[in-house]
What we know:
Blueprint: H1 2-11, H2 25-49, H3 54-70, H4 75-96, H5 98-105
Helix pairs in contact: 2-3, 3-4
Amino acid sequence: SASRQHIAVLRGEGGHTLSDPLYGPPLWAMYGGVSLFMFGYAAVAWRCMRNVKVQRVVLGLVLLALVPLVSYMPALASLGVLTLLLVGLIGYEWIKYQELRTEIRHATHE
């Protein structure tokens, strides 16, 4: 089954380890999937609120541009790069929207 194959890869069995580079469809699925999510999020924000979250579109483009570069890195390192970029986005948005969150939380609702 697929889950047994995944566990075998994590254990280093089956000829693959986390230090092997990730390439092809799995790499595109990881980076392209997150990129597609960023574009989708931006599209929904535009459709519903007429507001573009530029940082999400930029991150989506950066992720697509990084695929050829991270294909030479170990799988765990390419996952680490993706994680750092997403944590960076969260930190940026947390700082950028902090005042707005405070305003909304302390607004009087009638």
